[in-house]
Specification:
Largest interface: A-B, 45 and 35 residues
InterPro entries (chain B): Xdiol_dOase_suB
CATH architecture of chain B: 3-Layer(aba) Sandwich
Helix content of chain A: 40-55%
Strand order of the largest sheet of chain B: 6-3-7-2-8-1-10-9
Pfam family, one (chain B): LigB
Radius of gyration of chain B: 18 Å
Order of helices and strands of chain A: EHEHEHEHHHHEHEHHHHHHHHHHHH
Oligomer: heterodimer
Shape of chain B: globular
Number of strands of chain B: 10
Keywords (chain B): Dioxygenase, Oxidoreductase
Protein name (chain B): Protocatechuate 3,4-dioxygenase
GO molecular function (chain B): ferrous iron binding; oxidoreductase activity, acting on single donors with incorporation of molecular oxygen, incorporation of two atoms of oxygen
Structural class of chain A: alpha/beta
Strand content of chain B: 15-25%
Number of domains of chain B: 1
């Protein structure tokens, strides 16, 4: 699965850090860079060019508008669409003047002044004093420049009216919005979800406009569910992949395949035609690759549990310490010496 | 009334079985490990238990992930060794103590532990290796077994404190059993080891040695530790050490330690062993002297809940 994350005005990959950590074990994840572009159409083309073939487009705010433009231009490329805190309507009356105030502010007083003015209304009002949220957001704005701001404001002012195209969208679509989003309010996102056939709306509780950063867990959970991916929370103990429900569900097929090797007839089948044996258990291409390459680290990443996948070593002998060394990223001698104190 | 004559703890590393099968027990690499078990074998030869209650975990051999009992008790007449992938091992099947097993199950359920009940199940190295370490390789095992399976693989695994409490109920079952069998309880697993993830190969000899002390003198502390703490200290697979707490919970507060042994690494594991007797009824002077234990306590669930 290829996932392209599309950030909003003045935003970058840091906006998505919670989602990236959860998605990366399962998918090829890339974040588009719109810092140099000043038209939604050019942004859509740039994002489409990041990967070949089908992609999941996930757009936040301005990135949502880019996602809609990607669907309009290349509907066959968009396998699934996720919109967060966004809009579909064209420029409102008087919008240019309101936005020009901020462009002038950034030009005159710099990005710190812009961040101080622009960011607070973007988040839930209870979070304005929350340094844990606001400091990274502020740092993100400071990484941008007044020129980037001006370009992206130009793109927003020139945005297409996407409302008429929504009824033609055919791919599965998820719309998310912070319940307290004051910039792209709930009603506006409800309107989008209602217009896209079959679209699902998820309201992110206790969140303003910056939902991916304000409520990363809620956004990530909805995203994983929508994409049919298991939830793999970050390891609570570093470097220890506890065999929790996410890993157990993720690894069910691979472990069942390995469990099968307890039977002599299955061991014979594995030896006679490994891929055909793996196919009997419905292993995905990446699971088959990991098994056939004896890539133990990858098998564990895919939910394999050592007690099951160890049975592969009964058919194709390899020492448990070699399996350990592989996972530790060490050669065997170094592993024996440094981890197990041998010699 | 049956009699609890000892509490034993041991690692159940499968490489130990492989070393025996391949005739490597006398090699330089393994001899120091097996030598440490000689006094324990002598102890058990003198103690002559009739029944061994073995607390262990299945390692993806008899249970797959389709059904994972938190606790399961075997009540079969016989337990055959399971093929773990390397073919059948040359060891005899294990005779069960089915009647006592059913009594244990009754006692557990009356005391609000609700195990899976297994009338037909094979056993893996988790039970095989401890029996081989304590009894060697006889033609037939000189003891009948009662397997207690604990899920220590698929989260959520039980709390260490729960294992400890289960041991207390096991003790009640032993003492309320009308037979006069001599019973040993064997907690298995551990000590520190981790087989998966980038911390694979983690061992913690210092923590292991402390555990071998504390299991005798300060089990309450070990029972109060969180699962996460076990994983941190003993590794992801080392958390199976909590199964020793079932054994310890069956013992009195005051115990006499007869033997301990520690060897690292056995394969990728810190391997430990302990032999304990209850201080009040220690038999070393006269191994077959009957002991005037307390009357069998009633298994009243209301009392248990307190």
């Amino acid at each position: 699965m290829q996932i392209v994350l599309l950030p909003g005005l003045l935003c970058d990959a840091s906006m998505w850090s919670g989602q990236i950590a959860a998605l990366q074990p399962h998918a090829d994840v890339v974040v588009a860079d719109f810092s140099q572009l000043d038209q939604i159409g050019a942004m859509a083309e740039a994002a489409l060019a990041l990967r070949d073939g089908p992609i999941v487009a996930v757009g936040h705010s301005m990135g949502g508008r880019v996602a809609l433009e990607m669907v309009r231009r290349a509907p066959e490329r968009i396998a699934k669409l996720v919109l967060l805190d966004t809009g579909a309507r064209p420029r409102r009356e008087g919008e240019e003047a309101t936005r020009q105030v901020l462009v002038d502010l950034a030009d005159r007083d710099g990005m710190a002044a812009l961040a101080a003015r622009w960011l607070p209304p973007m988040v839930h009002e209870d979070r304005i004093g929350d340094a844990g949220l606001m400091e990274p957001l502020g740092a993100m704005v400071l990484r941008a420049t007044p020129e980037q701001h001006r370009r992206q404001i130009r793109a927003l002012l020139d945005r297409p009216d996407a409302l008429p195209q929504l009824g033609a969208i055919r791919c599965p679509t998820l719309v998310m919005v912070g319940r307290q989003d004051r910039w792209s309010p709930l009603a506006q996102n409800e309107e989008i979800a209602a217009a896209i056939p079959g679209a699902e709306l998820v309201v992110i509780e206790n969140s303003g406009h910056m939902a991916p950063a304000e409520q990363p867990a809620q956004v990530t959970a909805a995203l994983l569910r929508f994409l049919g991916l298991p939830e793999t929370p970050a390891d609570s103990i570093p470097a220890v992949p506890l065999f929790d429900r996410a890993r157990s569900r993720r690894g069910y097929r691979i472990n069942k395949m390995a469990m099968g090797l307890s039977r002599p007839e299955n061991r014979a089948a594995f030896l006679a035609g490994e891929e055909a044996y793996l196919d009997r258990f419905g292993l995905s291409a990446e699971e088959k690759r990991a098994v056939m390459a004896r890539d133990w680290r990858e098998m564990v990443r895919l939910g394999g549990n050592l007690f099951f996948i160890l049975k592969i070593s009964a058919v194709d002998p390899v020492r448990i310490t070699e399996i350990g060394a592989h996972q530790a990223g060490m050669d065997h001698d170094t592993f024996l010496r440094e981890r197990l104190g041998k010699r | 009334m049956a009699k609890l004559i000892g509490g034993l703890g041991t690692s159940h590393v499968p490489s130990i079985a492989a070393a025996i099968d391949k005739g490597l027990a006398g090699t330089d690499a393994w001899k120091p490990f097996f030598d440490g078990y000689v006094p324990a074998k002598e102890w058990i030869a003198r103690a002559k238990p009739d029944i061994a209650v073995v607390i262990f975990n299945d390692h993806g051999n008899s249970f797959f992930l389709d059904r994972v009992p938190t606790f399961a008790v075997g009540c079969a007449e016989e337990y055959r060794p399971v093929d773990e992938g390397w073919g059948p091992r040359p060891i005899p099947p294990f005779e069960g103590a089915a009647d006592f097993s059913w009594h244990l199950i009754d006692t557990l359920v009356d005391s609000r532990f609700d195990p899976m009940i297994c009338q037909e199940i094979e056993v893996d190295h988790g039970l095989q290796v401890p029996l081989e370490l304590f009894f060697g390789r006889p033609e037939a095992w000189p003891v009948r077994v009662v397997p207690i399976f604990v899920n220590v693989i698929q989260y959520p695994i039980p709390l260490p404190s729960r294992c400890y409490e289960m041991g207390r109920v096991l003790r009640q079952a032993i003492e309320s059993w009308p037979g006069d069998e001599r019973v040993v309880v064997i907690g298995t697993g551990g000590l520190s080891h981790q087989l998966q993830g980038s911390r694979a190969g983690f061992v913690n000899p210092e923590a292991d040695r402390a555990f071998l002390k504390d299991i005798a003198t300060d089990p309450d502390r070990l029972a109060a530790m969180s699962r996460e703490r076990y994983v941190e200290m003993f590794g992801s697979e080392g958390a199976e050490l909590m199964m020793w707490l079932v054994m310890r919970g069956a013992m009195d507060r005051d115990v006499v330690v007869r033997h301990t042994h520690y060897f690292v690494p056995a394969s990728m594991t810190g391997a430990g062993m302990i032999v304990m007797e209850n201080a009040a009824t220690a038999e070393e002077a006269d191994p077959v002297a009957p002991s005037p234990g307390p009357e069998a306590p009633a298994t009243d669930p209301e009392v248990q809940a307190a």
